[in-house]
Fold this protein.
Amino acid sequence: MAERKMNLTLKVWRQKNKNARGDFETYAAKDISSDMSFLEMLDVVNEGLIEGGKEPIAFDHDCREGICGMCSLVINGQPHGPDDGTTTCQLHMRKFSDGDTIVIEPWRAKAFPVLKDLVTDRSAFDRIIQAGGYVSVNTGGAPDANAVPIPKAEADLAFDAATCIGCGACVAACPNAAAMLFVGAKVSQFKHLPQGQPERKSRVLNMIGRMDQEGFGNCTNHYECEASCPKEIPVRVIAELNREYTRAALTKR
Amino acid sequence: MALDSRVPSGPIEKKWDKRKFDMKLVNPANKRLYKVIIVGSGLAGGSAAATLAELGYNVHCFCFQDSPRRAHSIAAQGGINAAKNYQNDGDSVYRLFYDTVKGGDYRSREANVYRLSQVSVNIIDQCVAQGVPFAREYGGHLDNRSFGGAQVSRTFYARGQTGQQLLLGAYSALARQINTGGVTMHTRTEMLDLVIKDGHAKGIITRNLVTGKVERHAADCVILASGGYGNVFYLSTNAMGSNVTATYRAYKKGAAFANPCYTQIHPTCIPVTGTHQSKLTLMSESLRNDGRVWVPKEKADAEAIQQGKKKAKDIPPEARDYYLERKYPSFGNLVPRDVASRNAKMMCDEGKGVNGTGLAVYLDFADAIVRYGKAEAHKHGLDEDDKETVQRLGKEVVSAKYGNLFQMYDKITGEDPYEVPMKIFPAVHYTMGGLWVDYDLMSNVPGLFVLGEANFSDHGANRLGASALMQGLADGYFVIPYTVGDYLARIPSSERYLKGAFSEDDGEFTAAESVVNERTKKLLSIKGKKTVDTFHRELGHIMWEYCGMARNEAGLQKALEKIPALRAEFWENVNVPGDGDNLNVSLEKAGRVADFLEFGELMCKDALERRESCGGHFREESQTEEGEAKRDDEQFSHVAAWMYEGDDKAPRLEKEPLEFEYVKLTQRSYK
Amino acid sequence: MSTQTSFNPFRLVLDFFGSSIGAKILVALTGVIMWGFVIGHMAGNLQVFLPAPPDGYWGQQINDYGHFLKSTPALLWGTRITLIGAVFLHIGFAFRLTMKNKAARPSRYAMKRSQKSTVFGKIMPVSGIVVGLFILFHLFHFTIGLPVEVMGVSNDILQYQDQAGHHDVYKMLRVSFGQVGFVALYTICNLLLLMHLVHGTQSVWQTLGLNHKSWTPIARTLGWLLVAAIAAGNLSIPFVVMSYPPIAP
């Protein structure tokens, strides 16, 4: 595809720190190549800001190849922008046209407070995992890896859920800022594996307990999460989570 | 001071057992009385933090990302090697050891590599027990695939996301320990200096990247697992935040930096499209199984392509140069990474590059599509001469094998690789060099341990595919838990941190903190004209030009003039806006780039000093008549370990001789 | 981690419904109960179209059905109590969840583009409130008696008696739906009820944890058919009755 050049108008959320009031500021992004990634476009804008003696727009990013889950941004009302199955860092400017106005906001959720500009604190996700998103096995003494065969179909279901990158787009997209897709993905992964069975009940109880405590909403079946998930994790995992939780809650000892 | 590798005596297969038995142990009840600092939360750091906390140590783990799960280990695609021999194809610990030493072009320490091969089998067991969903066969057992540099199938994988799945396994083990209180996690916190007390590493100085607060952390030992330094080239497949600061600061505090010039350039990456480019994306090596690499035979054709006047399909087969197949008839497109990379560069240097910048070669799947399509048509009794059927079936096969990679390529370039050949170019991918460590993974500074890509230990001058994940986890799960214990057990009770023997208020800590604060203040006060990225980009150009895929004396000398000049300009003219007491992305970058500006010089010095070609280090002066890398075992069969002597003094070179008792040194040939 | 030693079913259930997922499941289950009622209610009302039995009169069948219900208090009150319970739990927990969900996003997006959510899902709270108010009105209208006259209809309609001395449900309907205003009101409220039910049928299996690659699409199609059937059944009553010749109160 041939390279195009375009001029854009950006409306970007700027917020000095966690406690400050934020607001939108408008910037012109000139001479943007269609070959740039979205974040490279922001890099260019930032270089201009710095040269003008202003502070650059702060945003989270790291691997820039769609796997670390650090990048975020709600772009024109869609987490990770308009492309399906894509993180912001993999979104390219050829998806936009000359003269476009692009609105860029942070993830908005009570559980993800804004730290600065477009940077949010997603440590609530870590705390949910800490509550039970693991198999309690110490290093050493594990049986041979082939000792327990796992049917390929089950292993594949576990893998589909395990591809979650923990970016939080599901929370950002959900009208209720719910973390059900994230929690469901982890619970589903272990549910489909024999290694996950011993802690199957305590895991889901503790993770949901923590999720509720962190101030996330809950699912009302809009499936916005599935549509925004850069790894296309299906809402099937939320149904599994509902079932696992019910089973565990009503049969716990 | 000579570097003592402290490799245990005895036959190679008994060394690790012997070392483990000789170690002093810490009483289980006393482990919580030792505090351990770990910098980095990737495969090496994360697994070490989890395992040490499981043992009972009081662990503090630091990462600059917002969560330990985001460390760049997560981006590894292909797989992890282990000598399980599940495929019954003749693999063994010894064979993995042999392949790794040979793949490293005989520049690694035999005893370390042997241990790596030994514990590789435990890694797979451990990861499966954690719930890592490795690929499986229909019978429910683990699947393997083969990878470059090996003739057996020993690579375990989880689709194209093996690194992600392994890291999430380590992260979950770490999360469990954070929950129990065994690990205190410090996210968005960057190590800015190492603190040495009485000759031992006893703490670090950090900056909280959100509040800007500079803090002192003391402990009984410090473990660095902060990854590689590929970003010295500005453009690499590393994450944007990957940096050399932790290891370089340790170097400046006395730790030896070994083989900094060893860099791995991966042949199949998506080419640079313009100056705006911030990072390079790797396409898995597996693509070379079916893709054919070519450039036009005639320079005129290449120029027409570069100017957009011709396309790949306009070049008839007889006008194409499948140069790898031509030059290496027996290995063809499957030559090792370093060879493939160098040849791509040679073609582009001859003016035969195939994109606007002239820095790309084709990786063409058209023939593979036809070949697979015909085979499928034959299998299903369809017409093998019907072009449409053959194309359709062939694309289905290729999609099943490489679908996710083709999709990724399409997303980034906007071109459909099923229809037009991919364009690829080599990119910096991994750094084999790192802080020097002994057999126990301890640097020459007592109490400073270095794991994973941050150390130099196992890959010699070239790393084989699927071995980085193996090394990170071997170091973290199965080596450091023993060796750290031995070091800690030797600390007298009265000298322990938690016994109050020393504290963050001691002079060494306050002095180190004030150096950090001075530097921050300086960076913020320059308010010059050029952005940090501009300097970083310029440094990257110098490094790539003179210390990249091919190096020569004149070029390296030139780089050694240019880098100090650039560094001087940086400290005069960099513009770091904002202040130090909140989240300031420019300030973070400035500190990292400042270290790269010093470190790049060290790399060039090492490259200059090593007047031989080996693995990823290609010195144009040292090549065979056919233009292949030529080692000089007489003079350079050693680890080059650089010691910091002061800012205005040249670093001192220490050599650790490498002895090969088990592996026979030969010249690699892929003809 | 639970440290409970003795099994306490009340505690378990309370804990469960205290969680966000438990609350959601309670809303779903009470929704299913009300679904059942909506179907039964419609089936009962459709008897308005049944022809007069031999030797009987037009409307007799629905009047007899009404009499049957009134003379079977166990059934009548059993149903009423279950329903009242379901309605209160449904509203109460839905309200609590909605408040929690709103609180989970204190600052709104300046721009939000939805990709999968439907209008049915988005208006759930609104349609729920309207349907709740409608049910209240409906109860006053046909069961308790309107406190004030509405569009010429008063609580007199509850006093109508047929030849057998039973309450004349048939006449009550004809008087009410002789008024275009009532037809319009019942139509609008029924449409909102149907929209509420659409999201309910499409969500219930997911919420109850039953999601299957092949069965879920079938269950969802059945859900649509059920809603369509209720639309046809419920809306036919006011419209058909309206088309009858006017009748004197």
